[in-house]
Design goal:
The chain is of the alpha/beta class. The protein has seven helices and ten strands.
């Protein structure tokens, strides 16, 4: 496996507050890594750096060998559009657009609109029967799957998910778990921020943060029962 993400001694300070303190993480292409830890441990700050929405105070963030933190704003925007798909706990869907139009909007900001590609990715997440439904007409689980479709439409190499099951019931959690596992098995690199211990035990590895430092980095890959 090739290394796709490498964080080297990452630090992030907000005034006198240290959010990340010497974080070192390597993620291989096609790996599913779960980042866990209590509130205030630095998980959100780490996600913001991984998604290029923030830059570290110190250290290096290498994305496919390129120090992404040293790119200018325009270069970071291009990198984020081409390399990274984002899924948030809050859905951030456009309420007056249909499911299909919400996905196509992401295409518009990336390159060209292709309705057939949008339909294909919605079919991948099990929403081919909901193309013309608006977000208010979808269940919470369907809205989250729509968010995943939106994140996948431009074929990113890395899927970053922030508490993707935080607003879902148990049945829809399972659907999202299975979908993330399927995407990993198809070769996507999946990095998930989660408080959910059940989700945390899936995938390949848990990185546990505490007070901005890595407390442990545990390999949890299981040959049997892997999603």
């Amino acid at each position: 496996m090739s290394v796709i993400v490498e964080l080297k001694n990452i630090e992030k300070h907000f005034g006198e507050v240290t959010a990340l303190d010497g974080v070192n993480i390597t993620v291989n292409s096609g790996e599913w890594v779960n980042i866990m830890g209590p509130s205030g441990s630095g998980k959100t700050t780490l996600l913001n750096i991984l998604s290029l929405m923030d830059t570290p105070t110190g250290g290096e963030y290498l994305l496919e060998g390129i120090d992404a933190s040293k790119l200018n704003e325009k270069q970071q925007l291009v990198f984020r559009r081409e390399k990274i798909g984002l899924v948030f706990q809050q859905f951030h869907l456009i309420p007056y657009l249909t499911a299909l139009e919400n996905v196509m909007l992401s295409q518009y900001y990336h390159s060209a609109i292709d309705e057939e590609d949008a339909k294909e990715v919605l079919e991948k997440v099990g929403l081919s029967h909901r193309l013309t439904h608006r977000p208010s007409e979808l269940s919470g689980g369907e809205q989250q799957r729509l968010c995943i479709a939106r994140a996948l439409i431009n074929n990113p190499e890395i899927l970053l998910a922030d508490e993707p099951t935080g607003n879902l019931d148990e049945e829809n959690e399972k659907i999202v778990f299975e979908l993330l596992g399927k995407l990993r098995d198809e070769g996507k690199t999946v990095i998930v921020i989660t408080h959910n211990p059940e989700l945390g035990e899936l995938g390949d590895r848990i990185v546990y943060l505490h007070h901005g430092k890595i407390e442990h980095n545990k390999n949890i890959y299981q040959k049997k029962g892997r999603l």
